[in-house]
From TrEMBL:
GO terms for molecular function: cyclin-dependent protein serine/threonine kinase regulator activity; protein kinase binding. It comes from Tetraodon nigroviridis (Spotted green pufferfish). This is Protein CNPPD1. InterPro entries: Cyclin_PHO80-like. It comes from the Eukaryota. Belongs to the CNPPD1 family.
Length: 150
């Protein structure tokens, strides 16, 4: 296989991302998981976007899902884009869904878009259900509702 090649500004962009997302300057640290401050920011955004008090998103749940589902910072950013789009195009949907469910399903859809190429890196709803402590039927329903809303 070919040696890994990076675009000219890759290193500079990576350093900026580490600083911006609070990953520090540790070169051994990868950007494969969410930092605690990034998780805190996400929780705040999801709670404000889906204000229902039922199944309100908490740090313990977000950290558990992030760890179990291996959520990347890129998936988090894309999920936040989805939430912003929903706020502008379909705010009624955000009144009906809990912030925990919105967190789980937007992360799942973002991960599918970014990483599921249908061969080796598939994203399975049952795995996301296990990460979010929901059954597959519920995850499937949440996914269909989310995709219809967006």
């Amino acid at each position: 296989f070919y040696p890994c090649q990076f675009l000219p500004g890759h290193q500079k962009l990576t350093e900026r991302m580490r600083k911006r997302l609070y990953y520090g300057l540790d070169q051994d640290l990868t950007l494969d998981s969410l930092s605690c401050p990034v998780t805190d920011i996400a929780i705040e955004i999801f709670q404000k976007s889906a204000p229902s008090p039922i199944r309100k998103l908490h740090k313990k749940y977000a950290a558990h899902v992030s760890r179990e589902a291996c959520i990347s910072p890129c998936a988090m950013m894309l999920a936040l884009v989805y939430v912003k789009r929903l706020r502008h195009r379909n705010p009624e949907y955000l009144q009906k869904i809990s912030s925990s469910d919105l967190f789980l399903i937007s992360m799942m859809v973002a991960s599918k878009y970014l990483y599921d190429e249908g061969e080796e890196e598939e994203v399975f709803n049952d795995e996301w259900g296990a990460a979010g402590k929901l059954d597959v039927k519920t995850v499937n329903h949440l996914e269909m509702s989310f995709l219809s809303a967006i």
